[in-house]
Design goal:
Layout (H helix, E strand, L loop, with lengths): L1 H23 L11 E6 L2 E13 L8 H10 L6 E11 L4 E4 L15 H7 L9 E3 L5 H4 L3 E2 L2 E2 L5 E5 H7 L4 H4 L4 H16 L3 E4 L4 E3 L2 E5 L8 E7 L2 E5 L7 H4 L13 H18 L2 E3 L8 E6 L4 E5 L7
Length: 316
């Protein structure tokens, strides 16, 4: 009996180092779980889709760089900071509507470009998307429309405020705005396939695009920058595009602008207005560059505003 016990114990002692070594030698995975997050808004299913992140030295591209550096240092954030690129998929039961399309291939292989993969992981396919609402025409919002000159969403119609289409897609825009040549060329590369197919529609300011979905003018960041208010069974979700780029700074000081603003003064006014409305009305907010999934509420604090992330909710 004792011999059997001692023999078993010896065998176990010989195996344990092997098990420990095997566990320590397991390769690192170095990838995230699929980037989607689901919630219900009344009768609508909302799926937040991550297109990935874009690293940025934000003190080099934002006004008040000393404030930006001081604030980030105060919360122990190192630069470049990873800015989320979020898009939002709305399933109304009758339509599948995507708000923004991510960066596609425009930012290179290590920034963005994950939207379609995460769309499929979330249980949908690009061919099922009926409409794409662009908050504005910038590479990280419209860049995912086409890949190699071919539409990524072959059955979708693209909607955008006419001011953005007229600004970025107009003939002679490169000569008129040489400092914006890169964005103008990218805009043509990704949107022209939809124009050629007759599937680009523009709207003028505040417009009901679908039942329960209307555009909210938020001009400044681009000439036609728009938010979208989604309403279902008394619940509201405001998808506000690029009202906020840097959560740590711009809620407390909404006057901080970014180099990508076409009209910085107008962008500040739009930011102040939407922040005040979100704080007073209590709508759930979805931000394109707030850390994924970018959902939360806005609270006023007397001097500026505070971002309150929405609690995680498991759907059963």
């Amino acid at each position: 009996m004792h011999r059997v016990f001692l023999s078993g114990l010896l065998s176990l002692c010989m195996v344990l180092p092997t098990l420990a070594t095997a566990q320590a030698a397991a390769p690192q995975v170095r990838s995230q779980a699929p980037g989607f997050y689901r919630l219900m808004l009344g009768n609508d299913e909302i799926t937040v889709l991550s297109d990935g992140t874009a690293p940025r030295h934000v003190d080099e591209i934002m006004s008040k760089p000393d404030l930006v550096r001081q604030t980030l240092n105060g919360v122990h954030e190192q630069q470049p900071i990873e800015l989320s690129i979020n898009a939002f998929l709305i399933n109304t039961g009758d339509r599948l509507i995507l708000v923004d399309s991510g960066a596609g291939e425009l930012f290179g292989p290590h920034s963005g470009g994950l939207l379609v993969r995460n769309l499929v992981a979330a249980g949908y396919h690009p061919e099922q998307v009926d409409a794409i609402l662009l908050t504005h025409i910038h590479g990280d919002h419209s860049g995912g429309l086409s890949l190699g000159g071919r539409p990524q969403f072959p059955n979708a119609t693209v909607y955008v405020d006419k001011r953005d289409a007229e600004f970025w897609l107009a003939a002679g825009a490169e000569e008129k705005y040489p400092q914006l040549q890169k964005t103008i060329r990218q805009s043509h590369a990704t949107i022209d396939p939809y124009v050629a197919a007759g599937r680009l529609k523009t709207f003028d300011g505040a417009t009901e695009l679908f039942p329960g979905i209307r555009s909210v003018p938020a001009y400044g960041h681009t000439p036609g920058h728009s938010a979208y208010l989604i309403e279902s069974s008394g619940q509201q979700l405001l998808l506000w595009g690029d009202i906020i780029h840097l959560t740590e700074v711009q809620f407390a000081d909404p006057t901080v602008t970014i180099d990508y603003d076409v009209d910085p003064d107008a962008a500040v006014q739009s930011r102040l207005r939407l922040l005040a409305e979100a704080a007073s009305q209590g709508a759930l907010v979805g931000g394109a560059h707030i850390s994924f999934p970018g959902l939360g509420h806005v609270r006023g604090d007397g001097r500026g505003f505070v971002w309150v992330p929405a609690s995680y909710a498991a759907l059963q």
